[in-house]
Amino acid sequence: MWGAAVIRDSLAAPVNVTIKALKYNSAVVTWDIPEGDLVIGFAITQQKKDVRMLRFIQEVNTTTHSCALWDLEEETDYIVHVQSISMSGPMSQHSEPLRFRTPKESETQASKNKDEVTMEEVGAQLRAGEFIIIVVVLIMWAGVIALFCRQYDIIKDNEPNTNKDKAKTSSECSTPEHPTGGLLRSKV
């Protein structure tokens, strides 16, 4: 009657929750949201199967419907739920539980593609890049300091030596014939 917009009292739970990029110690959970829901964020709960402790992750990026799960244990069963967060505050119901199992580390390494880059390799590349940047910055600063010292010496050499002249004239006038200057002036 009032238009095509559907007004609901609550958000629908995310759908099509899946696991991608599954490794022995990490995974990426992805999901979709029903059309028309005004969502400002997501809440992801991660739980080891048969363990009461939960990891609760709030994701505020609404453009990508995914979240990295890290620090997982190999050969372990996990359960993941996703909830949508609305502007007014309440969360949606939990998505259907998604169960998955992390593989053994050796299985992940054996199936690694030769073109695939691991997080450890990326970290090593970043550290090498950071080291190069630091070295370049230090070399640049050394160059700036050397140029400053060189310019300072040139400026000092071109400056008139007025202080040296004053010191010379006061020592020349320190004789009894010149009573206004020097250490030997007479007290009369």
Secondary-structure map:
Blueprint: E1 15-20, E2 27-32, E3 39-48, E4 54-59, E5 66-69, E6 77-86, E7 98-101, H1 105-110, H2 119-158, H3 162-172
Antiparallel strand pairs: 1-2, 2-5, 3-4, 3-6, 6-7
Main location: membrane
Membrane topology: Single-pass membrane protein
Subcellular location: Membrane; Secreted
Question: Would you mind describing this structure in some detail?
Answer:
This protein is an alpha+beta fold. It is 30% helix and 24% strand. It has helices spanning 105-110, 119-158, 162-172, and strands spanning 15-20, 27-32, 39-48, 54-59, 66-69, 77-86, 98-101. It has a four-stranded antiparallel sheet, with no helix packed on it. A three-stranded antiparallel sheet has the order 1-2-5, with no helix packed on it. A hairpin with a 5-residue loop joins strand 3 and strand 4. The protein is elongated. Mean pLDDT is 77; it is low at 1-7. Residues 13-105 form the Fibronectin type-III domain. It is a single-pass membrane protein. It is found in: Membrane; Secreted. Keywords: Glycoprotein, Membrane, Secreted, Transmembrane, Transmembrane helix. Residues 96-117, 159-169 have a biased composition (Basic and acidic residues).
Mean pLDDT: 77
Strand order of the largest sheet: 4-3-6-7
The best one-word shape is elongated
Radius of gyration of CA atoms, rounded to a whole number:
37 Å
Tally of strands: 7
Describe the largest sheet: 4 strands, antiparallel
Question: Structural class of the helices, strands and pairings?
Answer: alpha+beta
- Termini separation: 118 Å
Order of helices and strands: EEEEEEEHHH
Unreliable stretches, pLDDT < 50, 5 or more residues?
Answer: 1-7
**Share of residues in strands:** 15-25%
Helix content: 25-40%
Count the DSSP helices. 3
Domain Fibronectin type-III: 13-105
Subcellular location: Membrane; Secreted
Biased composition (Basic and acidic residues): 96-117, 159-169
Protein name: Fibronectin type III domain containing 5a
